[in-house]
Amino acid sequence: MSTLFIRLVSKADADRTPQWLDLACPFALVSHSGAIEREGIAPLSDLSGTIAKIRRVVLLLAGSDVNVLRVQAPPLSAARLKAALPNLVEEQLLCDPADCVFVAGGLTGGLRTIAVVQRAWLDQLARAFISFGARHIAALPAQLCLSSQPGMVTAAIYQRDSNLDLTLRLSEQEGIGLAINVEPGVTAAHEVIQTLSAVVPAAPVTVFVPQENMHEYQQATADTPELKERFSISADNWTRWITGAHSVTLDLMAGLGATASPKLDWRPWRWTLVLAAAVLLVNVGALNFDWWRMKSEANSLRSAMIQVYKSAYPNETVIIDPIAQIQQKISVSKRVSGQAAADDFTTITAAFGEAWASVKATLPTPPSIAALEYRDRSLYVRMKRDSEAPTPQMKAALAKRNLSLDLAPEQSGAVVWQIRSTQ
């Protein structure tokens, strides 16, 4: 995915314009590989379509809008340092710290780098770009995106009519920005060189200017040997800014918290989600159809069983469970006719006696039975404590006679078999 870099106008210029989103800003669209796909100058409102399509927007805040301070801070955790920042830099600010956003960098030389920007301006930027469809916004101090060389100052110029943005990188951890209004009758190059001479009285300065203004700035330093020796004029380009931005760790948008947090991009997953929803819908529909079919089949079977029961027992008026009721009727009919039911005492006892005799004959030491008890259509056989119950052999023998054997709970510790009919 591509990244859009934008050098923003200063807040002072935005305040002077009713529709600040219509102010032209330099931009560069950079591919994932780092190649510049497109660059130019356009109003922010015209870039809304591009912003909605890309993954990340990097805003280079004007140097005049960001204070980069160096303060001595005690060793604190990230949360405590964030809470202490307003008090650490309060004396170096002209505005109320409550109206500012603070972002702290790393420790270098015993001092910590702090970037400060007005909260209202940063919040205004975040809301504007989120409304354009931006999903991840980063805001970097432009002065820290300039290259830094020991013993040398780097400056960059951006001019709009009579307004100039002068950005300076004084050292590796320091930088400032100045908003200059060019007076009538004074050339912009002359005004910039005079300002730089006052701000940087001795150190060599490399000044990056637009390609079309190169001759003007070279002429402004050519007449004075001292200036010509100390000032180096070069053409500005986006490659320098992009390279410098990659090395900046102070993201001011992080100070806004959730307001400018990355937004989850659902668009690459939309067809996957549509397919998953379609599969889920088909499966839910199939399950409901299968349930309806089985429910209809169950109702049909129940209706058929009720009709069979009514035809066999026409005098019955209450039919709750036709299968259980007809089994009960059959069992009663067998008893009336003298036939023993499969779960009667005599039937279960006789089958158990046969199985017990067959298993007992195979054992070297036959076990002893302590008691027999019949209740709830089951025969309970309690073995003596000193006897080893042949439970597996009895299960196999009883299964041949349509009987099941389960171990019943017994508090005395003796083995108790529960024998029931499986018919």
Which structural traits does this protein have?
423 residues, alpha+beta, Nucleotidyltransferase, domain 5, Gyrase A, domain 2, 3 domains, 5-stranded mixed sheet, elongated
CATH architecture classification name of the largest domain: 2-Layer Sandwich
Largest sheet: 5 strands, mixed
How would you sum up the global shape?
Answer: elongated
Number of domains: 3
Q: Any low-confidence stretches, pLDDT <50, length ≥5?
A: none
What level of helicity do the residues show? Answer: 25-40%
- Oligomeric state of this protein: single chain
Q: How much is the radius of gyration in Å?
A: 45 Å
Describe the structure in your own words.
- The structure is a single chain.
- This protein has helices spanning 11-15, 48-53, 78-89, 119-131, 188-199, 214-222, 225-230, 238-246, 270-312, 322-336, 345-360, 391-399; strands spanning 3-7, 24-30, 36-43, 56-61, 66-71, 100-108, 111-118, 137-141, 153-160, 163-169, 175-181, 205-209, 231-235, 369-375, 378-383, 403-407, 416-421.
- By secondary structure, the protein is of the alpha+beta class.
- It has three domains: 3-265, Nucleotidyltransferase, domain 5, CATH 3.30.420.380; 270-319; 345-421, Gyrase A, domain 2.
- The strands form four sheets. Strands 3-2-1-4-8 form a five-stranded mixed beta sheet, sandwiched between helices.
- Helix 11 (345-360) packs across helix 12 (391-399).
- It is elongated.
- It starts with a strand and ends with a strand.
